[in-house]
Write a structure and sequence with these properties.
Distance between the termini: 9 Å
Largest sheet: 5 strands, parallel
Order of helices and strands: EHEHEHEHEH
Length: about 110
């Protein structure tokens, strides 16, 4: 499976990339909404793992843009108190995970079913 990872924090992106690759999936990266949409259109990923708390553009807006081109989106955040599950689903996320992402209870399950 090809996963588009959209994360603006370098260290978080490295950790998530390693997790996804350990599960045997290929990772494509973007660091903001503009790059995410362009990369998605250019590379046709199977799944998008999107940080919902990005400084340049709200991750919810980015999720909605990616959902508009019919891609499954898993929203992730370290700030669940400000980015609720309801907001994530209304923006078009198919699933929602809290950071730190737990391979056993979260990411692995979604990558298998996507």
């Amino acid at each position: 499976m090809k996963v588009l990872l959209v994360e603006d924090v370098d260290e978080s992106r490295k950790v998530l990339r390693a997790m996804i690759e350990r599960l045997g999936h290929r990772v494509i990266e973007a660091t903001n909404r503009k790059d995410a949409v362009k990369t998605a259109l250019d590379s046709n990923p199977d799944l998008v793992l999107m940080d919902l708390s990005m400084p340049e553009v709200d991750g919810l807006q980015a999720a909605a843009a990616l959902r508009a081109i019919s891609l499954p989106v898993i929203g992730i955040t370290a700030y669940p108190e400000t980015l609720s599950v309801d907001k994530a689903f209304k923006a078009g996320c198919d699933a929602y995970l809290r950071k730190p992402v737990d391979l056993g209870a979260g990411l692995r399950r979604f990558l298998r079913t996507a």
